[in-house]
Amino acid sequence: MSVKMNLTRAQFDEVMVPNYAPSPVIPVRGQGSRVWDQQDKEYVDFAGGIAVTCLGHCHPALVGALKEQGEKLWHLSNVMTNEPALALATKLVNATFAEKVYFANSGAEANEAALKLARRYAVDNYGPEKDEIIAFDKAFHGRTFFTVSVGGQAAYSDGFGPKPQAIIHIPYNDIDALEATVSEKTCAIMLEPLQGEGGIINGDPAFLRKVRELADKYNALVVFDEVQSGMGRTGDLYAYMGTDIVPDILTTAKALGGGFPIAAMLTTTEIASHFKVGTHGSTYGGNPLACAIGNAVMDIVNTPEVLDGVKRREQLFRDGLNSINDKYHVFSQVRGKGLLLGGVLNEKYQGRSRDFLLAAIDNGLMVLVAGANVLRFAPSLIIPEEDIAEGMARLEKAVAQIVEA
């Protein structure tokens, strides 16, 4: 017989590696865009588990898929394929530019696969000297040593010894720097079409067109990291669909499983052919349980009802944030797209994004930060309008708490 433990925040410091500093709040259940903690305090969720719970908490279709598959088959490894993986890969191929899919478990793993594939493609076609990866300041691509080195934030990558080589970082949206850097040695240009961790920064259309143009000129691959911007987050199934260009490789994770760990790398048949049998793999990648849930997410998200609804909700968020700002004057701008938005703190409140986050928690609202100067909002794509209104009311109280302190 199991014994119920008295679990508290103090246990974290006793038994967990201290690489996180979690809030004192411990959520225990959720429904839709509301969450309750151990003391049964209710929160409106504007965070979405960092753009993951795209259909809210405990969506019945996802719960149903989990229960149904959980009574059939959990795991095989990639010695065999399985029906849910084949079904999900087919849906992704049919809905995007891609012709081939590789499954993994996290955005970092999908990006690791993308970077390895880009290097292998270049070596096979042009020789080992074509190895340079161009990436961008403030980018975030994961926490493996390769992906954190390609990410453009030294705070995450420094202090672990020698880094993978032939990685060049330049300013995002800087066409002149791009033109000065891409060369015959470039094997890939990797970017987020909408930078998330870096501060919710949109890719400029002219800049993105130049990325594609220069990649084509120098036989380099364009890799889009859509781990955060994908799966309906911007109002398109993938953010590239709202731009003028198509990538060669795309990575997706986070919302693909609606909260269950799954990721995928999408590419063309020709590029995929350079991952021959044995060149890369994952024990759990594409397991039936994750893919069954991914199928349920795709069936709901990739519909006009949900994607058009994201655009309507974006306006409600912008209106709410602008209304708060009219009263309290804390944001210099609201940027982003769809339901990946950032309130940029003005000069008076620079460096205080975490203070606003903590005040929001005090007032029953879950939000995110994107650096020290940006409040980030990444709620469920189907968050009810009444929850948006209630969340904005709670955010206003949190802002007032900071401003009037």
Characterise this structure:
With 405 residues, the chain is an alpha/beta fold. It is 39% helix and 18% strand. It has 14 helices and 17 strands. It has a 7-stranded mixed sheet, with helices on both faces. Helix 3 (60-70) runs antiparallel to helix 11 (288-301) and helix 4 (83-95) runs parallel beside helix 11. The longest helix has 25 residues, at 304-328. The protein is globular, with a radius of gyration of 21 Å. The protein starts with 8 loop residues before the first helix and ends with a helix.
Short description:
The protein contains 14 helices and 17 strands.
Overall pLDDT confidence: 96
Q: Helical content, roughly?
A: 25-40%
- Taken as a percent bin, the fraction of beta residues is 15-25%
- Count of helical stretches: 14
End-to-end Cα distance, whole Å, is 51 Å
Spans of at least 5 consecutive residues with low confidence: none
Oligomer type: single chain
Structural class designation: alpha/beta
> Rough shape?
globular
How do the strands of the widest beta sheet line up side by side? Answer: 4-12-11-10-7-5-6
> Tell me about the biggest sheet?
7 strands, mixed
Annotation, overall tally of beta strands: 17
Our Rg estimate from Cα atoms comes to 21 Å
Task: Draw up the topology in text.
Blueprint: H1 9-15, E1 27-31, E2 34-37, E3 42-45, H2 48-51, H3 60-70, H4 83-95, E4 100-104, H5 107-126, E5 132-136, H6 145-150, H7 154-157, E6 167-170, H8 175-181, E7 186-191, E8 194-195, E9 201-202, H9 205-217, E10 221-225, E11 249-252, E12 263-267, H10 269-272, H11 288-301, H12 304-328, E13 331-337, E14 340-345, H13 353-362, E15 365-366, E16 368-369, E17 374-377, H14 385-403
Parallel strand pairs: 3-15, 5-6, 5-7, 7-10, 10-11
Antiparallel strand pairs: 1-2, 2-3, 4-12, 8-9, 11-12, 13-14, 14-17, 16-17
Helix pairs in contact: 3-11, 4-11, 12-14, 13-14
